Structure formats: structure tokens, C-alpha cells
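Is flavin mononucleotide placement plausible here? Inputs below.
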Amino acid sequence: MVKTAILYASGMTKNTKRLAEYIAKRVDGDLFDLKEMTLIDVSNYETVVFGTGIHAGKPYKQVLGYVKANKKSLEGKDVKLFISCMYNDEKGKQQCAKVSKEFGIPDAVFFNKKEKEMNEDGFPASVDAFIARLRCLPY
Ligand SMILES: Cc1cc2nc3c(=O)[nH]c(=O)nc-3n(C[C@H](O)[C@H](O)[C@H](O)COP(=O)(O)O)c2cc1C
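Reply from A.M.:
I modeled the complex. C-alpha cells:
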């Protein structure tokens, strides 16, 4: 079966952690907290999802640091980024585009609590759309 790793860093609200846990549960993925560990071998994963919160326009250094240090091992994989943030609409889009560039991960999305449509687990409906696009989807 195709395997997925979800690597994230979360702050005080744990919003990013909750999103990462939800995604991991849905795709039967392995979850790694980059604030707890930094030496993660992703070579056995086909899909690698990164998650970060945003403070003052910047992603968490643990996540950006990991991606920059492991560019080679991410080659050829389905690599995606999700951002947990407070900005939505145009401002959210612009911020997401900037962060996506910083990471060098074109496939980036942002989630926040202002989204109108929530799923039955209390997550933005766009999270489910994101999950549906992952290469790993086991069902
Ligand atoms: C000090 C601080 C600065 C923040 N700056 C931004 C920001 O520049 N842009 C944004 O969209 N959200 C910003 N936020 C909101 C967080 O990114 C958002 O609440 C996110 O879900 C936090 O997730 P976490 O607690 O898992 O890190 C900020 C929050 C805090 C506490």
C-alpha cells in the first residue's frame, strides 16, 4: 500500500496539530511532530504532507528547515503543504502563495476557522477536498 507521512509543527492553539491528526487518520498516515523530532526518514513514503501555522506571515522554522534540508529525499514524491492560519479570502491566498514559494512546494493550501463550510468533524470542508487529492488515498 502507498504510504503517507504527515510532518507538522504546531503552536499554542494546536490547530495545526489537530488538522495533521485528522489528515493522518483519514489516510492511515504516519504523523511526525517536527518540534519533537527532526531526523525523519521519508524515503519509504510516496506522499509527504507538511503542515505549519503562521506567525507574522512566517511559517514555523522547524517545518521550513526540514524541507530545505531534505529537498533531495523529497524528489519524485507527492509533496503537499497545508497552512493553518487566520487570514482567509484574498489575504489568505496571497499569504499562502508567498509561503508556498518559500517552501518550494507549489501544491499548498490554507485552512482556517472562518471557512463557511465545516464538515461533521468540525474541520473546514476544504480539508476533505485536500485529502481527496492525495496520491496515497487508500480508498
Ligand atoms: C503571534 C501570532 C501571530 C500570528 N500571525 C498570523 C499571520 O501573520 N497570518 C495568519 O494568517 N495567521 C496568523 N496567526 C494565526 C495562526 O497562524 C493560526 O491561529 C494557526 O491556526 C495557529 O496554529 P497553531 O497554534 O497550531 O500553530 C498568528 C497567531 C499568533 C498567536
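Short version: Residues 20 and 79 are 14 Å apart (CA to CA).
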